[in-house]
Design goal:
heterotetramer, A mainly alpha, B alpha/beta, C alpha/beta, D mainly alpha, A: mainly alpha, MetI-like fold, B: alpha/beta, Rossmann fold, 4-stranded antiparallel β-sheet, 9 helices, about 25% strand
Chain lengths: ~290, ~260, ~325, ~300
């Protein structure tokens, strides 16, 4: 116990991740996926839109790891570029939703009364409309594109974070160490920066990592239905959707992108779970 | 103990709403004085309003009615900037050592917080010296300055709480059940420390407890509270020798006698 | 030796934490006669609660126990509780041994009426033929433990009762199976001092009237003096001293017991400063080899650091484990 | 009961909020709906006539209240594309979604609760890891992947079940399993964590001290206490379930609300989309109130509020 005292919480978190097997393995897989997709050109000499109608629908083998799709494009390459979109979708909207949720959650907990009521009712509204249907409304208004998918994911996910952040903040505000700080003359801002935010951080991190799988699954579902990301942009959901009619003759066409989605989601999921055990083994945040 | 009054309360009332019609009256028209250099105890069973009264005196919460005077000036109506100077002169030591220290801060930052809020120490080295000085006063090892609260025992955490409370050289220390959560041996060490510090620093102390034996050891005067009302105030010897109020007698009779006369 | 009820022999309990095993109870021997109330007193973390819970077999998951817990039936047969199967041990609980817990708030099932929870003991051990008989027996016992209008209270839920009332329900629940032994784990710690006095008096009356023995776990010397005939003082998993309550208070021998008693503020005369026990409990894994208390003991000797003192009897029924007391 | 009425009032407010939000997003943001509907080379006169007929010339608040009044009287406006009242379309498709969702709920809740209880009871035991693994798999696999996989397996490879929905109950099995598989995972995790929390509660020690064996103590006491929070969270699952239904209906071509919403988006049929979303929100509101009622009956602490 004494040995780790010197490090501040950041290093402690990293060291704890190394010790926790689940966090280590899933962390490495995530790193691998990120490297594979960002440096895709190194791993494949095809580009993701290059059509080669001569050998369309080729089975895996001779130069095409996962074969080619209906327009003769190399499936493996498209998966790498599709993963970029999935990773972007996994991190950007989830981070923005976490930030928005945290801000509104803290506001709701700090300025009680009307603000609290309005924010919480807004969160209830978000939670009472199925994510998919709400995304459809957003996509109807803004048209199907990466940007509109990001916006709809932000709007869908902020509600839950706001609710959890609000309840944790309320509990923190009533704790004795905040009362001690106030009785020493500290102002609201000082209490927020010194006591509320540092103690909120673990909860926010855990919520963020647990929302990542949800974002990836939502985007891929929207793109699968054809109303999310539109061609020529590449998305794993879109690829799976497009290969539906070839499902029985060439199952790998659908299996490869869908399998990749599963691998990404699983690794983020285990990483989030492990992080939750490390950060607050006692309390159950969900 | 001088005759000068440090802090006094006049007809203080505080109530909380419980749903539409019912209101719970925590403190009901209470008046009391605390003299400079004295240890006044507020004793009573849970729910008698002693904690609420303490927080009213410290102006952590506002009373529904009544006046609070600190060295003659009425502070019941003050708030924000005007109230801040008085915060410096009254400090509180809390009950549960585990939840009164921020788990994310090291001991150095916990004790330094009041000093930082009031910018008492001009530079870092002065601040560090002051913190080490405070650690020494509460009999904690200097090496503990970098520890996190989770690495300390209950008694050690309470000592950090005391160091934080005396950091600003306050005139009044309010102990809200500060030893109730501790084991007997640790409780004795903390009681001795509080008594010694009070004498060395010339503090006045408002000691809140449900344990009449602890109050008998540490207090000069005792207020017995019940249902938000002070039913008796007397100095320690007279209260224990011949208690006036019937409730006080009932409290005293409930304490099992330890030692000489074994159970009949 | 005929009327021994329970004998705990060389009980050790250790908790697995990660790779290492942390010893909590280190070879404890306790004897309880029939109709005798024995106190087990010590500060938090000394292992007193673990000792009590291992008798009932309700240790937390990672805890492992070894040693013997011998239950003496009136007809002389002796059964070792540690050897029993889960089913066999459960048949003893509630019927032979009743238990009262510390937190009245959370020890009752919030979703069940208190009457049904007490009657459940009768149903489990098939002590009654039908619901009606069970109900009537429960109401009679609720009245005996001091609950007014027991018939009405039968149907109320735990959250509708005060702390003191709930503890009375717990006592009724522990006693309805007419057990031979009552184990009370800090029965009054969560209660106000006036309610505590009533509950202690109630437990004493119930034990005397039913000629029942009790093992009372507490950190409060007041509870020992109000309730216990004999007392064991425990420190860091070991029994330091055991004697009758009168002997212990009149003539405490072990330095730790003396330290505990002198640390207690009293009603009436108090010294300027309390004589305390210096230092604090060493961290897990850094315990001394010899006597557990040697680091904090004022009058210790070299031997105390390397050898663990064995128990000696100084006068009738007063045993202490300390080298210094042997010289006297 | 008082608490329940207050919460029901809260749900009504949320519903009004939902209607307002959807109204703003569909009617306000995209600009003048008439021009959006008709393509560009149409004369201004036609646009004016259409605007007039759809009552779009009135001020926004007027339109909103007109729409609200309509909803109360069951008039969700009429669909542009299919020239039919939206409500009749919805009621036509709703039974399919209802059957699918109920079957999926039956499948996922029984599987979820069973595996949750088993993995909680035999904690840190082989079964626990097995069920937890499948539960995590359940959550992490996209619904459409499960659907395609089931189609491939049960239709193409073993030809046991029909590819798509043909009105028969048998053809609903695959869609229900595909839809239920995902929420079975989260119900299992939920049940496990809630039950384990109850198993650590002190009253379980009391139950054992009374003579109840571990198994009986679990069923008699812990489950009863874990039920309310599990039921509340299962009601919250409903919205996730309806999201999944959209995909399942598309893969198995079931003419449910999800398909309706999808066609509404593809044909840019505003009132239809608006009606479907609001109707679904209504469903979820009813689900929440039902869960609330069940909880109030189950938990005495709420009943005496």
């Amino acid at each position: 116990m004494k040995a780790e005292r010197k490090r501040n919480t950041g290093q402690e978190l990293f060291r704890a991740c190394l010790h926790n097997k689940a966090a280590l393995i899933s962390g490495l897989i995530i790193l691998l996926i990120i490297l594979l997709s960002t440096f895709a050109p190194l791993f494949t000499h095809y580009d993701e839109t290059g059509q080669d109608l001569m050998n369309r629908l080729m089975p895996p083998g001779n130069g095409h790891l996962f074969g080619t799709d209906e327009l003769g494009r190399d499936v493996f390459t498209r998966i790498l570029y599709g993963t970029r979109v999935s990773l972007l979708i996994a991190l950007l909207p989830t981070a923005l939703a976490a930030a928005l949720g945290t801000a509104l959650g803290i506001c709701a907990a700090s300025f009680r009364g009307a603000t609290d009521f309005i924010i919480m009712r807004l969160a209830d509204i978000m939670l009472s409309i199925p994510g998919m249907l709400f995304a459809m409304v957003v996509l109807y208004t803004l048209g199907g594109s990466l940007a509109s998918v990001v916006i709809s994911l932000i709007l869908i996910e902020w509600g839950e974070t706001a609710r959890v952040v609000r309840s944790v903040t309320l509990k923190l505000r009533e704790s004795e160490f905040v009362e001690a700080s106030v009785s020493a003359g500290a102002g609201g801002l000082h209490v927020m920066i010194w006591h509320i935010l540092p103690n909120l951080l673990p909860t926010i991190i855990v919520l963020f990592t647990l929302n990542i799988p949800a974002s990836i699954l939502s985007e891929s579902a929207l793109s699968f239905l054809g109303i999310g990301i539109q061609p020529p942009q590449v998305s794993l959901g879109l690829m799976t959707g497009a290969s539906r009619q070839y499902l029985f003759q060439m199952p790998w066409l659908a299996l490869a992108p869908a399998g990749m989605i599963m691998v990404i989601v699983l690794s983020f999921h285990f990483f989030g779970d492990a992080l939750r055990d490390i950060l607050d083994p006692g309390r159950r945040t969900a | 103990m001088s005759e000068e009054i440090l802090i006094s309360a006049r007809n203080i009332t505080k109530s909380y709403s419980l749903g539409r019609k019912k209101r719970h009256i925590a403190v009901n028209d209470v008046s009391l004085e605390l003299y400079k250099g004295e240890t006044l105890a507020l004793v009573g069973e849970s729910g008698c309003g002693k904690s609420t009264l303490a927080r009213l005196l410290m102006r952590l919460i506002k009373a529904d009615s009544g006046r609070i005077c600190f060295e003659g000036t009425d502070i019941s109506a003050l708030s924000g900037r005007a109230l801040k100077p008085y915060r410096k002169r009254m400090q509180m030591i809390f009950q549960d050592p585990a939840s009164s220290l921020d788990p994310r801060l090291r001991i150095r930052d916990i004790i330094a917080e009041p000093l930082r809020v009031w910018r008492v120490c001009p530079d870092k080295t002065e601040m560090e010296r002051r913190i080490l000085d405070l650690l020494d006063m509460v009999e904690l090892k200097e090496s503990m300055i970098d520890w996190y609260p989770r690495e300390l025992s209950g008694g050690q955490k309470q000592r950090v709480g005391i160091a934080r409370a005396i950091a600003l050289d306050p005139e009044l220390i309010i102990c809200d059940e500060s030893v109730s959560a501790l084991d007997v041996s640790v409780q004795a060490q903390i009681l001795n420390l509080l008594k010694r510090l009070k004498k060395e620093l010339g503090l006045s102390c408002l000691f809140i407890s449900h344990d009449l034996s602890v109050v008998n050891f540490i207090a000069d005067r005792v207020c017995v509270m019940r249902g938000g009302v002070i039913c008796e105030t007397a100095d320690t010897e007279t209260l224990y020798a011949h208690p006036g109020h019937e409730y006080t007698r009932y409290l005293l009779s409930s304490i099992p006698a330890i030692g000489d006369d074994p159970v009949s | 030796m005929s009327d021994i009820l329970l004998e705990i022999k060389n009980l050790t309990v250790s908790v697995r934490n990660g790779k290492s095993d942390i010893p909590i109870v280190k070879g404890v021997n306790i004897e309880i006669q029939r109709g005798e109330i024995v106190g087990l007193v010590g500060e938090s973390g000394c292992g007193k609660s673990m000792t009590a819970r291992s008798v009932m077999g309700i240790l937390p998951g990672p805890a492992r126990k070894s040693g013997e817990i011998l239950w003496h039936e009136p007809d002389g047969t002796v059964t070792d509780l540690t050897g029993l199967s889960e089913k066999a041990l459960r048949d003893m609980c509630g019927l032979r041994i009743g238990m009262v817990f510390q937190e009245p708030m959370t020890s009752l099932n919030p979703m069940m009426r208190i009457g049904d929870q007490v009657a459940e003991v009768l149903r489990i051990h098939k002590l009654v033929r039908n619901r009606e008989e069970a109900r009537e027996k429960v109401i009679r016992l609720l009245k005996e433990v001091g609950i007014e209008e027991p018939a009405l209270r039968y149907r109320s839920y735990p959250h509708e009762l005060s702390g003191g009332m709930r503890q009375r329900v717990m006592i009724a629940m522990a006693m309805i199976g007419e057990p031979g032994l009552l184990i009370a784990d800090e029965p009054t710690t969560a209660l106000d001092v006036t309610i505590e006095a009533q509950i202690l008096r109630l437990i004493r009356q119930m034990c005397v009237s039913r000629h029942m023995s009790a093992l009372v776990i507490t950190h409060n010397m007041g509870v020992v003096s109000a309730l216990c005939d004999r007392v064991y003082v425990m420190y860091m998993g070991r029994i330091m001293e055991r004697a009758s309550t009168g002997q212990l208070f009149a003539n405490p021998l072990h330095p730790y017991t003396r330290g505990l008693l002198s640390s207690l503020p009293r009603i009436g005369k108090n010294p300027e400063y309390l004589t305390t026990i210096p230092g604090n409990i060493p961290e897990a894994g850094r315990e001394p080899v010899g006597c557990e208390f040697c680091l904090r003991c004022s009058d210790d000797e070299r031997r105390c650091f390397f050898e663990r003192p064995s128990e000696i009897e100084t006068d009738e029924g007063h045993y202490v484990s300390c080298f210094m007391c042997q010289r006297v | 009961m008082k608490g329940l009425l207050a919460r029901m009032f809260g749900v009504v407010i949320v519903l009004i909020g939902v209607i307002a939000l959807i109204f703003i997003m569909l009617w306000v943001i995209p600009g003048d709906p008439a021009t959006v509907l008709l393509n560009d080379h149409v004369s201004q006169a036609n646009i004016d006539r259409l605007t007039q007929s759809m009552g779009l010339d009135k001020s926004l608040p007027e339109q909103f209240f007109g729409y609200m009044k309509g909803i109360l009287t069951g008039d969700f406006g009429s669909s542009y594309f299919m020239q039919q009242p939206v409500l009749s379309l919805i009621l036509e498709n709703f039974p399919y979604t209802l059957r699918l969702t109920l079957l999926a709920i039956a499948f996922s809740w029984t599987l979820g609760i069973a595996s949750g209880v088993i993995s909680a009871v035999c904690h840190e035991h082989f079964l626990d890891y097995l069920f937890r693994g499948t539960a995590v798999l359940g959550i992490s696999v996209p619904v459409f992947m499960v659907a395609l996989f089931l189609q491939y397996l049960f239709y193409y490879r073993f030809s046991l079940l029909p590819l798509t929905y043909d009105g028969s109950f048998v053809s609903l099995i695959l869609p229900a399993v595909a839809l239920g598989w995902n929420s079975a995972g989260s119900v299992a995790r939920l049940m496990r964590s809630e039950l384990m929390e109850q198993l650590d509660a002190p009253y379980i020690d009391t139950a054992k001290a009374k003579g109840l064996t571990y198994k009986k103590a679990v069923l008699a006491h812990a489950l009863r206490n874990a039920a309310p929070s599990v039921i509340t969270l299962m009601a919250l699952q409903l919205s996730g379930m309806l999201s999944g239904a959209v995909i399942t209906e598309s893969v198995f071509s079931i003419p449910g609300l999800g398909q309706l919403a999808l066609t509404a988006v593809q044909t840019r049929d505003m009132p239809l989309l608006q009606g479907t979303v609001i109707f679904t929100a209504l469903l979820i509101a009813v689900g929440n109130i039902l869960a609330d009622m069940i909880n109030t009956m189950l938990d005495p602490r709420l009943r005496t509020e």
